[in-house]
Amino acid sequence: MAEYTLKVRRYQPEAGEGAYWEEFNVELEPSLSVLDGLLQAKDRDDGSLSVRCSCRAAICGSCGMKINGQSGLGCKTQIGEAHEAANRRNGGGNPIVIEPMGNMPVIKDLITDMESTHWEKIRRVTPWLLPHGEPPEREYIVEPESMIDITQSMACIQCGSCVSACLSMEADPDFVGPAALAKAYRFVGDPRDAETRERLHDLAQDPHGIYDCTHCFSCVDACPKGVAPMDQIMRLRRRAGEEGIEDPNSGHNHEMAFVKIIEKKGTLDESALLQESFVPGIKGKLMPGKRAIKEMIASLPTAIRGFRTGKMRSLKVIPGLHHKLPDGAQDEVKAIYAHAQAHREEFNIYIKGEEGAEPEEKEAT
Amino acid sequence: MKLAYWPGCVSRGFTTELHGSMELVAERLGIELVPLERANCCGAGVIAEHNQELADTLNARTLALAQQTDLAMMNICSTCQGAQSECQQRLDADAEYRAHINESLAGQGLEYTKGKDGFSNKNFLWLLVEDYGLDKLAEKVVRPLSELKVGPFYGCYVVRPKERLGYENHPNRDIYLEQVIEVLGGEPVDYAGARKCCGFPVITMNRETSLRQAGTHIGDGIEAGADALVTPCPLCHLNLDLQQPEAAKVVNRDLGLPVLHLPQLVGLALGFEPKELGMHRHIASTGKVEDRLAATPTA
Predict the structure, then answer these.
(1) Which of A317, A331, A345 should we substitute to test contact with B (largest number of B Cβ atoms within 10 Å)?
(2) Is B104 close to A336, i.e. CB distance below 8 A?
(3) Residue A314 banded pLDDT, cuts 50, 70, 90
(4) Under an 8 A CB cutoff, do B14 and A345 touch?
(5) Which end of chain B is more exposed for a tag (fewer CB within 10 A), N or C?
(6) Does B196 contact chain A (CB < 8 Å)?
(7) CA A245 to CA B131: how far, in whole Å?
């Protein structure tokens, strides 16, 4: 048995007061969970301490919360580890800090209202199968292998931890978000669904859709089930790109511009990237759209400031004068492009697993 | 200490002061850098979203070029670290996949080898703490940053996902900046944004969200009393420094917080002058840092 202090962010709406912090001392085995600690405090100290929970085994997804700032499940976080995490930079006197999930309104203590930032967004992606044609007499028959691709997104238990952790949603509450987009991929990747292109088009056209993710990996670390929502968002982008779907955020243009620049130059020419992201092929056909013009104008002050300090040397902003890789190296990069474009293999560790401790032949050096 | 060196693209593009200060600092620390002249862009996650195999092969090429030197590899960009580690994790996970990628490199006389003796790919921050050593770094400090309060800004790609980035063996990688700031004599500042996203990846796709992220973190840093932020990621630097005046407009407040590259902060403590470290190239004036340091003469 060990003693721990839980510092809980509390909010009791009936008291008519704002949120406040309260500390609870609990005593339990380090291998027990943070949720066990909270339930002990509720049992021994204050029955009004409110937390949503049910299975206590990371299956039901009820006890999403922030522990030392990290979103996850209270039942899946060992209290001993949470204590260590809280005390990496001092001798051990810090409490374990527990807050309700982020990006959501708080109803009471650790209980959040998941309706507007989670369930509404889940419904927004049409989370059911849209097959075409007459339904079969019995069940749909598909090859088991064709479903493997979506098992990762099917593992979601709707706990909201990823939404809580999402740094895009923190800055843009309209972002469709990691849970809903992972759910969207679950149907985009389903061989029985017949509206794949429509789904991709819908989520690419939404300015707060697939191109609003900042690629911060917060949802990947928060997810207790290994869904890696951000990876699913990247799959949606890949699929949308393969379908050639354009979007108002210039997400697809940006991606294609990046890919082309590296094929041509080997390293990134930022000024070319900026231009090509907004106005692809500017040198050939000067037809920037309304948004492109707006964005180019918006980036002018930054460019001018860059000139003034010498940050952007004059050569740098003229695409085409970027340094090139030495003798023959660029041809090697091009050869890689040819090989990879021909195969387009996608390797998913979640599905394939890792070699683990498999003995690897040591190089005879 | 001799290392294969991958400076990345941005440190030779919009943030030349990073590459420049890294070379100066490495020399003074006694680290010999062997540049990987033939290496290519890491793809920054963008190429992977287009074609994962392409991104993996491009990064396998860079790693293989480094392995060819029989040296460990160093990068100076959180994003390079993240993208290269992601590729390496997939290559290391499966012999068949590795063989497939190596097949593409074979024509160039290159091969990526899993678990090659003595090979690792670490950014300057990890290398400084884990291999160079903070004690040794402390010995090199000639101008302690004793009046300087510094807010760390890591960049997502070196803090998440933990399982991919070696946190099992190095659990403190997300507090190394604080440790380095302390060793250099400065005072690390706690503020909300240290491990959050700078917003750079969506600057062309959702400018307002992007700048709101940058502006919020800079504002939080100022409120917590920081004289400057320090980052090991040049892409973060672009959004936090180059875009700072634009971010200020979006969050509607005065900002004006210097943002230093990690080698610049180390360089100041090693006795280099701000100009040698290219600090005059920054958009947010570094005058505040220089004023503080003026009070601390070089030993």
Answers:
(1) A345
(2) yes
(3) very low
(4) no
(5) C
(6) yes
(7) 47
**CA-to-CA distance for A209 and A170, rounded, in angstroms?**
15
The pLDDT tens digits of the residues spanning A232-257 come to 999 999 999 999 999 998 899 999 99
pTM score:
0.93
What residues of chain A lie within 8 A of the CB of B243, using their CB? 302
- Cα nearest neighbour of A262 on chain B: B41
| Beta-bridge partners for B228 | B150
Q: How is residue A362 annotated by DSSP? A: P
Contact A88, B172 (CB under 8 A): yes
Residue type, A108: K
Interface of B with A in 15-54 (CB under 8 A): 15-17, 37-38, 40-41, 43-54
Of B160, B186, B172, B164, give the one whose Cα is nearest residue B129: B172
Beta bridge partners of A10: A20
Mark out the alpha helices in A4-131 (DSSP H runs): 34-44, 79-86, 120-124
Find residues 75-114 of chain A whose CB sits inside 8 Å of chain B.
88-89
Backbone angles phi, psi at A163, to 5 degrees: -65, -40
Is 70 exceeded by the pLDDT of residue B298?
no
Does residue A54 sit in helix, strand or coil? Answer: coil
Q: In DSSP terms, which residues pair with B151 in a beta bridge?
A: B229
- In eight-state DSSP terms, residue A169 is H
CA pair distance B47, B55, nearest whole angstrom: 5
Tell me if chain A has a CB within 8 Å of the CB of B79. no
